[in-house]
Amino acid sequence: MRGTPKTISLRRRLICDLMHASMGVPFVSLSRSLNVRPLLEARAGATARAGWAAMFVKAFALVASEEPILRTLYAKWPRPALYELPRSVALVAVARVEDGEECVMPQRIAAPEAMTLAAVDAEIRRAKTAPVEEVPMYRKIMRATRLPLPLRRLSWAVGLNFGRQRGNWFGSFAVSSVAAYGGGELHPITPGPFIVSYGVVEADQTIHVVIRWDHRVTDAAPIARVLTRLEQVLNTEIAGELRAAGPKPIRAVGT
After folding, report:
1. Is the pLDDT of residue 252 over 90?
2. 155, 191, 169: which is closest to 24 by C-alpha?
């Protein structure tokens, strides 16, 4: 059958490189439905309703401030070792449309646990709407993606295999979801070490969460504990910050 050859765009080339870098990671996953009723109540009454990605980014980073294993990654060079970062660095998968093509771009957020929820949300929203050349992470990753294949492989190898550079390029955890486009359990892959995905809010006020992680870094028992703590943080610290931002103004009847 005759088809039509199409050039791989820079955005698709980025995904190809990402998948190539993720092939050797021994991922396992754990999923659970979290009861988020207090969070939903706080969000419904808040003046500014932060997006779910922002809430999960900050909540996971807060848990990671208590659990150093969530800031630990596997580095191969100069010799295989586990490398603990001093703070969390999130990579958020942002869906965009560029030149008529749907694509996903990674936005880097350093130390989200120390930022306000509004600031985290603003970073993600800006990454979705600002021109690519105005987002530092996008400019950085596109420069690497324009390189010839041998140089791209070298730059990715440096970024992946040295602990310090791994944190700079790929962060300590990623957040990705298709909840905005309907239900479904997403199991994305990245170079690791942790990736969080969430679904839509169900009628019983639960939300399904999946954590995938590099099994070289940790085991299932700590991740089960992390999911329990994540639920607590969403319903306490994150819900509390939403309440502190102030309730929605009440409009008088007839105005």
Report:
1. no
2. 191
The DSSP bridge pattern shows strands 206-214 and 194-201 to be: antiparallel
What does the alpha-carbon distance between residue 33 and residue 171 come to, in Å, rounded to a whole number?
26
How far apart are the C-alpha atoms of 45 and 67, rounded to whole Å? 31
Specify the higher pLDDT residue, 250 or 110: 110
pTM for the model = 0.93
In a domain, 22, yes or no: yes
- Give the C-alpha separation, 68 to 30, whole Å: 19
Cα separation, 208 vs 34, whole angstroms: 6
Overall number of domains in the chain: 1
* 119-126, Cβ contacts within 8 angstroms, sequence gap of 24 or more: 120/50, 120/54, 120/57, 120/58, 121/48, 121/50, 121/51, 121/54, 124/51, 124/53, 124/54, 124/57, 124/92, 124/94, 125/51
Q: What is the DSSP letter of 99?
A: T
Residue range 224-249: mean pLDDT, rounded: 91
Domain presence at residue 114 = yes
Does residue 252 lie within any of the structural domains? Answer: no
Tokens of 105: 């771009």
Q: Is residue 143 part of a domain?
A: yes
pLDDT, residue 183, reads 72
Q: CATH number for the domain including 228?
A: 3.30.559.10
Residue of 174, 58, 52, 46 whose CA lies nearest to 116: 58
pLDDT digits (tens, 9 = 90+) for 211-232: 999 999 999 999 999 999 999 9
Task: Look up the domain containing 104 and give its range.
Answer: 11-244
